[in-house]
Amino acid sequence: MVVFQKPHALTDTPFHYCPGCTHGIVHRLVAEAIDDLGVEGDTIGIAPVGCSVFAYNYFNCDMIEAPHGRAPAVATGVKRVHPSKIVFTYQGDGDLAAIGTAETVHVGARGENITIIFINNAIYGMTGGQMAPTTLLDQVTTTSPYGRKKEIQGMPVKVCEMLATLDGVAYAERVSVDSVKNVLAAKKAVKKAFEIQQKGLGLSIVEVLSTCPTNWGLSPLKAVEWLRENMMPYYPLGVYKDVTKEGEQK
Amino acid sequence: MAEKLLMKGNEAIAEAAIRSGCRFFFGYPITPQTEISEYMAKNMPKVNGLCLQAESEVAAINMVLGASAAGARVLTSSSSPGVSLKSEGISYLVGSDLPCVIVNVQRGGPGLGGIQPAQSDYNQATKGLGHGDQHIIVLAPASVQEMATLTGEAFDLADIYRTPVMLLADGALGQMMEPVDFEEKPHREIPPKDWACTGHGGKRKPNIINSLYIEPNDLERTVVERYKRYALIEEKEVKYEEFLTDDAEIVVVAYGITARIVKTAVKAARAKGIKAGLFRPITLYPFPSKQLDAIADREHVKAFLSVEMNMGQMVNDIKVAINCKKHVSHFGRTGGVIPTPDEILENIEKVGGAN
Questions:
Q1: What is the per-residue pLDDT for A240?
Q2: Interchain proximity A65–B210, CB inside 8 Å
Q3: Do the Cβ atoms of B193 and B155 come closer than 8 Å?
Q4: Residues 6+ apart with CB under 8 A from A127
């Protein structure tokens, strides 16, 4: 009996990610959700610009590589042509919350029936460790070498909290992949986001707190600790919007 | 003969797009092309199509990218400043070999410029619409009728060559009303879109739409392959019109609305005994270089006069096309000022006298 195997929705292409990077875990969670729901043949994914730019080589469904930050607009075009297909974007924090903020906010405003998987690791990975919109106060990056200062660079962006205010957003949850327990919770959230899309309820977004050991300058284990100690207090885990439970929340 | 409708140029584009099977329009309001959006908003729902107003030109062109990647015929339209915003997406569309039609109803520039007709985006359209080695097919209509006919052509060309196609019009053509006949256009064989992202359904390998090639040799190979397609376009798709050029000594070159004014000036010149003629490029890329060169070889041709609503952009393409074997000069008005037949005639006379 097979108890553990690679999801069918992942290709055999080896990941290019750095040791300790959590992109691999999140890719797997997305692929497991696609497998569980049996929608690989009906799914179209949109890859971003950033560390996960090569996501189009890793998922076994049709894939489109979007310009930086524009994945939600590209997804809109795809979904409007094929409303019955599953359309997801996979985006990092620079892509989604800096250069693509307008596109992100407006898929929420329109209630675009797509799913966003949002990787928040508080840094620009691919370009080598620059400040992200989600970089924490006092966090040192190559473009905030003295630490991010409120007076100079302003405060980090809380994406789930912001999007939850929009009527078109059906589901917004922040999860983390720092522990087995949290990975399992993240898996549920990703699957739920796809199910909400299947039901046609509006935009679903799962924000995943992730590590970047290479650019944080930490070992993989220390990076997980740093995430818990620094990211979780500012970016609390939880469900920020869930239209399937509106009655219960209030 | 089919029924003729009195329409604005902008509306003719929109109607022709719908009749060409376009069911997706993404745009953002900007003068002087907004009638295209408005016509689409009113009429797309009647054919189960979609007109979606995007949050920006940037978003609109990326929605176009998504819809095109999904296999649909898709249109976006804008005017000069908005086209600049679209240029990122256009480069990605080129790099991903995605078909679509982009309309630029030009206004004066640079910057916010003005809202009156201009042709000052000629260089942008024909040479610099996006970063990287690239061309897109550029069609220049000169009447409301051609706004319609060339829109249909544009969709076919886009699908056949898997490339964005630009309809380069101007505020005058967009706003003026003329009778238009949406006659059957010539049938062209459209290849199947087996590359589109439609969900593989377990029946084929995943399709990937992408413009990233991290290995320089791979990227070079892809670009070189694309340039072979451009060579085919340059060989097969050149369009132009000639008016009284057979015995012409002065050949005026003009496209779009300017060509209409030049025609009047050429007739006036002929009445004065000056042998003038008009050469009107309809495709600005591919530019009718060979045809112009053949005209330049005629012994009786003394000079070329390029007339545009800009400071002189096409004039250099003419010089290159004819290898500077005859004198080429430019006359233009810019900033939204439309040249009069009289001032064009004056320049024809000047060119005639100088030779």
A1: 98
A2: yes
A3: no
A4: none
- Give the mean model confidence (pLDDT) for residues B336-346: 98
Q: Please list the residues that pair with B98 across neighbouring strands.
A: none
Nearest to A76 among B66, B89, B212 (CB): B66
Segments forming the whole domain that contains residue B323: 241-354
**CA atoms of B197 and B207, how far apart (whole Å):** 6
Q: What is the 3-state composition of chain A as percent helix, strand, coil, each rounded to the nearest 5? A: 45, 20, 35
Evaluate whether B200 touches A11 at the Cβ level (below 8 Å): no
CA distance A75 to A70: 9
B85 lies within 8 A of chain A by CB: no
- Domain shared by B335 and B228, yes or no: no
Instruction: Quote the minimal CA–CA distance from A171 to chain B in Å.
Output: 22
**Does residue B190 sit in the same domain as residue B60?**
yes
* ipTM associated with this complex: 0.96
Residues near B101 by Cβ (< 8 Å), separated by ≥ 6? B17, B22, B74, B75, B76, B151, B154, B155, B158, B164, B165, B166, B167
Number of helices (H), then strands (E), belonging to chain B: the values are 12, 15
Amino acid at B287: F
A39: closest chain B residue by CA? B201
Cβ-Cβ pairs closer than 8 A, A with B, add up to 132
Q: How far apart are CA A82 and CA A86, in angstroms?
A: 9
Report the SS3 class of residue B164.
Answer: strand
- Tens digits of residue pLDDT in A3-51: 889 999 999 999 999 999 999 999 999 999 999 999 999 999 999 999 9
Centre a 10 Å sphere on the Cβ of residue B87 and count the other Cβ atoms it contains: 17
Which residues, other chains included, contact A74 with Cβ-Cβ below 8 Å and sequence gap of 6+?
A46, A64, A66, A67, A89, B62, B63, B65, B66, B69
Q: Which tens digits make up the pLDDT trace of A107-119?
A: 999 999 999 999 9
Measured CA to CA, the distance from residue A232 to residue A176 in angstroms comes to 9
Distance from CA of B110 to the nearest CA of A (A): 25
Alpha-carbon gap: B135 to the closest alpha carbon of chain A (Å): 19
Residue A249, pLDDT score = 52
CB–CB of B310/B122 below 8 Å?
Answer: yes
**pTM over cut 0.95:** yes
Name the packing angle between helices A71-81 and B57-69 (round to 10°). Answer: 50
Q: What is the CATH number of the domain that holds B263?
A: 3.40.50.920
- The answer to whether position A66 is within a domain reads yes
Give the domain extent around A182.
Answer: 23-244
